[in-house]
Specification:
The strands form 2 sheets. Strands 3-4-5-6 form a 4-stranded antiparallel beta sheet. Strands 1-2 form a two-stranded antiparallel ribbon. Strand 3 (109-111) and strand 4 (114-118) form a beta hairpin. By secondary structure, the chain is mainly alpha-helical. It is built from 16 helices and 6 strands. Helix 2 runs antiparallel to helix 14 (301-334).
Length: 406
Amino acid sequence: MLESVRVYAKRTDKIYLLLCLFSSAMAVLMLASWAAEQGGGLAVDEITGQVTGIGDFRRALVQAGAAGIGVLIALALSTVDYRSLVKIWPVHVIFTWGLVLPTLVIHNLDLGPLTIGYNAGDTDNYSWYRLGGFTFQPTELAKISFILTFAMHLNNVRSRINEPKELAKLLLHLMTPILLIHIQGDDGTAIIYGIIGCCMMFTAGLSWKYIIGALAAGITAVSAAFMFLSDSIGKSYQWYRILAVIDPKNETGWAPSEDVWRNIVYQQDRGEVALGSGRIFGNGMFSGDYYSVPNAHNDFIFSWVGNALGFVGCMVVLGVLIALVIRTFAVGARSEDLLGSFICAGVGGALLAQIAVNVGMNLRVLPVIGVTLPFYSAGGSSVLMLYICVGLVLSVHMHNKKKLFG
């Protein structure tokens, strides 16, 4: 037993694991300190004043438990050759998308303790399952399946990626899940899928003429939408959130009423203040003042990091996350085959996209689109899915012999 542990420790990427463990430990600490500021965190009877439960501390405990289970899953998955996971693609495609598709048409259907198409917020996103007190978003699991199947597709076409016929097939493969998730109402996740696919195609050698052409087309489409289609496409909260970033004071009159404007900008206003209030070294994790921010435990956990640990703490958190992204791409660069490189490009792209979008939301340079910060945002299922991705990267590391520099 000890010999097996020693051999595994020698073969695995210990630095990668340590970066993940540090992020998870910091996440639990941040969520616990956030809970302590929410009226002590514990659930208290309003009449007797007696403690009746762990209250907001439950989120930190769930995060810790999910991280612990996730590490075990990652370690076990890392011993499985990633090539065999790709070969059984029909199994995970049918399973994952079999969970996603019902939520496209079923909304808040209660089947005993199970709710299909659960709305976890105040939007039109019904992409969740709820079982008892736990929620699960199947598109997160489908994301892993997509990375594996798209990596297989890229590996199959290889040098033919820039042929129009093959590129059209790849774009169809990419756009199908994006459109399905858009119909589902989760545009934030749809955007992450798009970025994942773009990172993987770039790694596969997509021609710059297509990249530049796509960027030009995207900029043109967005500009046209703002200039000519704002009245027809824009009376929804997603459109208002975009306009709130461009014109946070409503000087152009984009909001139909004062109440709508205040409701749209409130979250990012509070998040921005909370981030700045920590100054250089923060107000302390379990003491000090904190500006209340909606979803500070989830999409806006970075605002709590800024408040509690200040600029220095934010740089440490971001530094470790970026190091994790770089390490992911480096493992792909060492892979002895392109399949491993594409898988790592997908995982690295997912991490980088979520970090950039979430931090951009908190800094009010991007609209709020419901994208979480990896490891830190509260959510047991998302942590488990993240560690499955970690297991894939570790599998690529352990099942190749190629060195990065020779």
